[in-house]
UniProtKB/TrEMBL annotation:
This is Phosphoribosyltransferase domain-containing competence protein. Keywords: Glycosyltransferase, Transferase. InterPro entries: ComF/GntX_DNA_util-trans (IPR051910), PRTase-like (IPR029057), PRTase_dom (IPR000836). One of its GO terms (molecular function) is glycosyltransferase activity. Residues 88-137 form the Phosphoribosyltransferase domain. The keyword Ligase does not apply. It comes from the Bacteria. It comes from Catellicoccus marimammalium M35/04/3. Belongs to the ComF/GntX family.
């Protein structure tokens, strides 16, 4: 995971393609729209790609990017206590309509659950019918 996410070895996105497809396609068959947790602009520019979007695209899974980061802080550099104190970090992208939709948030690493909780809250406030989450790894 470190080589893919931190070091930017984009070619490694194929490693879990089959497993990701099987797991997330089952959500799509139940009517869920996949929504990747967004990166900060700085991280996207640094890596040149979004690791979650890369995995979804390589697995041939459609998704909608409903969320955008409103704080540029990187969660990975914080300890657990600092992560739990992080201010609200997401907003619905302009023009995003989530009302009455079933959404599956997709993230790469689940640590404290704070990122998923913020994404969940944002989508719920936007009127989403149901929000679930899927993380590739748990730290």
């Amino acid at each position: 995971m470190e080589r893919y996410k931190i070091k930017g070895e984009y070619s490694l996105r194929h490693c879990f393609q089959k497993e990701i497809y099987i797991a997330l396609h089952s959500y799509q068959k139940e009517g869920f729209i996949l929504c990747p947790i967004p990166l900060t602009k700085a991280k996207r520019e640094q890596r040149g790609f979004s690791q979650v979007e890369g995995l979804l695209e390589f697995s041939h899974l459609s998704y909608c990017s409903f969320l955008e980061k409103i704080h540029e802080e990187t969660q990975g550099l914080k300890n657990k206590a600092e992560r739990l104190k992080t201010p609200y970090m997401f907003a619905l992208k302009e023009g995003s309509v989530v009302k009455d939709k079933k959404i599956c948030l997709v993230d790469d690493i689940y640590t404290t659950g704070r990122t998923i909780t913020y994404g969940y809250d944002c989508l719920q406030k936007g009127g989403a019918k149901e929000v679930v989450s899927f993380s590739l790894w748990r730290a």
